[in-house]
Design goal:
2 domains, alpha/beta, elongated, 9 helices, Rossmann fold, eight-stranded mixed β-sheet, binds nicotinamide-adenine-dinucleotide, Dihydrodipicolinate Reductase, domain 2
Length: 328
Amino acid sequence: MSKNTKKIDTALIGCGYWGTNIAKSLITIKKTIYVFDENHNNCKILKKRFPNYINIEKNLSNILVNKKIKNIILATPPSKNFKLLKIFINNEKNIFIEKPGLKNLKDIDYFKKLKNKKILMFGYIYMFNNYIKFIKKFVSNKKNGKILYLKFQRQNLGPIRNDVSVSYDLSSHDLSILYYFIGDLPKNLSEKSYSILKKKLPDISNISAKYKNIYIDIHNSWLNPDKVRRITVVTKKKMLLFDEMKTDNKIVIYNKYAVYPKISEFNNKFFNQKAKIYFGKNYSPRIKSNNPLLDELKYFFKCIKKNNKPFTNIDFAEKILKSLDKLY
Ligand SMILES: NC(=O)c1ccc[n+]([C@@H]2O[C@H](COP(=O)([O-])OP(=O)(O)OC[C@H]3O[C@@H](n4cnc5c(N)ncnc54)[C@H](O)[C@@H]3O)[C@@H](O)[C@H]2O)c1
């Protein structure tokens, strides 16, 4: 136990895979934190990693009644979150809850109706990623021409969930990025998914949609031999490829595009309409990489301090859940 537990104002609930990553960033901001996990062993593993910064709490109700603990970080499975969120909100805590937050769209109504004065933020980490911020500027820049096509690929072997489908787990990230890029989400999502490991729980999902004149593909899988994290943007004048797995030059901008020439430009005698491909120079913009998780948590504490509504608030989470609700 740390010497001065009186100063600890934040508790992390859920010390699994992602909770461990959160703890690493959280202790750089808060120095010491409480942790609770229904699997006590996971708390012990975390404590072993960061012995001087972790205080294990064995009983959830101690966290609830402790008025000094004002902030809760939830890194628990979506299927458990409705109950947990309800308890913490009723105990007047500020809450950061990992994406997608809730499993059922109808559950979000319960929280929207509450007159909660505390901060409730959903953890959509890509909103804090400098590369994603760069791509947002690229797609918004009219000089690059209209956006024609967006492709998102997020594949790996695991983590394999047993409470939500691959789209709830992985497409939630890509939908949040799409929402950030275009300021809305398409209503006409269609999905082809495959439940391979377990009945009625898709491991692979292919979503396609059209938003205004933009064609969109989102491909997600937790049953894939290698880790793929890519975003492709095709505009009228340029192409962009973001490969998150690369160590450097993660974004490449291609000054190339394809067009069919106007019919009037053809010789009627030899009518053979071929698309013309234009090639220019490629380049990789210099982008300062950041630690999105750390920045996201800092933003949460800043919102608390200034009493500001977070950008990834309940309306943001609802928008994503509305799309996920249409999928498997
Ligand atoms: N932002 C990201 O990039 C990112 C990455 C991975 C996971 N996540 C999200 O984080 C959340 C957790 O995912 P994970 O990969 O860490 O899962 P995990 O299964 O590894 O960990 C979940 C932990 O919660 C604990 N737990 C379950 N029910 C509990 C309860 N009622 N009270 C206390 N503890 C409980 C489990 O014992 C486990 O230790 C999910 O919502 C997931 O979508 C986000």
